[in-house]
Write a structure and sequence with these properties.
The two termini are 17 Å apart. The strands form 2 sheets. Strands 5-6-2-1-9-10 form a 6-stranded antiparallel β-sheet. The chain has a 4-stranded antiparallel β-sheet with strand order 4-3-7-8, with no helix packed on it. A hairpin with a 7-residue loop joins β7 and β8. It has a domain of 144 residues: Immunoglobulin-like (Sandwich). It is an alpha+beta fold. It contains 5 helices and 10 strands.
């Protein structure tokens, strides 16, 4: 039982690493649609991260899905938002996304954030139906045309996914850092800190459980 608890704690911490490494506005989906059958709903959480408070309040995201000449749009429903009282503090918003694909095939999807900035986030294309393997991996994407996207930032979270054309499906390894535009060398935290914190947390939890078992 103790091993299961420790594993869960470590996985929960690892899920935060790509987000902590990322800088600047980005979008995340909790799971991709790969392997979903036509007519079966793809339900996931879309999160807009590191947006300004006013942007989050104004955001009305739309998801555009396309396969060949077929395309359609879905507007996610808002679940909640974290908007600090200060306008200079970054905020985030979460949305419930539900999509039903009309046919099997290779589908790409793009998130339009619906803010005055008109950002576009391109996610890896996914194979729908056709006995494709079910993929539950999440993904993070940076704005189209941003320095982060040009550097290859973004990709799979907690797993590997088949890369899409243009390399947008590349995974986001812990050592990849996307510096904020115009930021200095001292901005942000070293990426080894989250990993070290996870290791210490796991070791501390294990020690505590061993002491309790001895009692």
């Amino acid at each position: 039982m103790s091993r299961i608890v420790i594993a869960c704690l470590l996985l929960a911490g690892l899920a935060l690493v790509p987000s902590a490494a990322a800088k600047g506005p980005h979008a995340m989906v909790a799971s991709g649609p790969g392997g979903i059958e036509p007519g079966e709903p793809w339900v996931t959480t879309l999160t807009l991260v590191e947006f300004g408070g006013r942007e989050v309040a104004a955001a009305r995201p739309v998801v555009i899905l396309q396969s060949g000449s077929d395309s359609f749009a879905v507007r996610p429903s808002r679940l909640g938002a974290h908007v600090p009282g200060r306008s200079d503090v970054l905020a985030e918003a979460r949305y419930r996304l539900r999509v039903v694909f009309p046919r099997a095939g290779r589908w790409s999807y793009t998130v339009l954030d619906g803010t005055p900035q008109r950002r576009r986030f391109n996610f890896p294309a996914a194979t729908i139906g056709g006995n494709a393997e079910r993929v539950t991996t999440g993904f993070v994407a940076f704005p189209e045309g941003s320095p982060e996207e040009a550097q290859g930032a973004g990709g799979a979270i907690l797993g590997d996914a088949a890369p899409a054309a243009g390399g947008r499906g590349d995974s986001l390894p812990p050592e990849v850092v996307s510096p904020a535009t115009g930021g200095g060398d001292g901005d942000g935290l070293p990426l080894w800190l989250p990993a070290a914190g996870l290791a210490l947390a796991g070791a501390g939890t294990l020690t505590l459980m061993r002491r309790r078992n001895r009692r």
